[in-house]
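Good morning C.,

I know you're traveling, so I'll keep this short. The sequence:
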Amino acid sequence: MVAAVEEEQPDHVFFLGDNLRDGKALAKLYPGIPMELLRGNCDFGPGADELVVELEGVRFLLVHGHLQGAKSGPSGLLSAGGQAGADMVCFGHTHHGTNLWNGTKPWLFNPGTAGGVRERPGYGIVEVRQGKLDAWLK
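The tokens, ready to paste straight into the viewer:
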């Protein structure tokens, strides 16, 4: 995660759960970067399970995904995003990068995993410019 922040120099970071202590450590290293931190199904103790964030007129629903059944398919994520009026639902849980947009709201985006599991480590970038979204996996 540190390497990604150093390379990308983001304006904002979404940490979508599991190993919340890593997200908190990242926030301490970069106090000048706003960070939204969620806990995942592997995290215990206090923390947010869901957040709605608005940036430059774009509404994001941030979830880990276990409570929306992300491993069973997109319907729970789409429903939660619709209820929140989200333009994009950012989620984790599956550890698989997903960039799914069919021209309707909400866009589903999973940055993948920063590491520590079987899948190839990676991250996602979401760009908001003049109220328009673009997103890709790295």
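Safe travels,
E.
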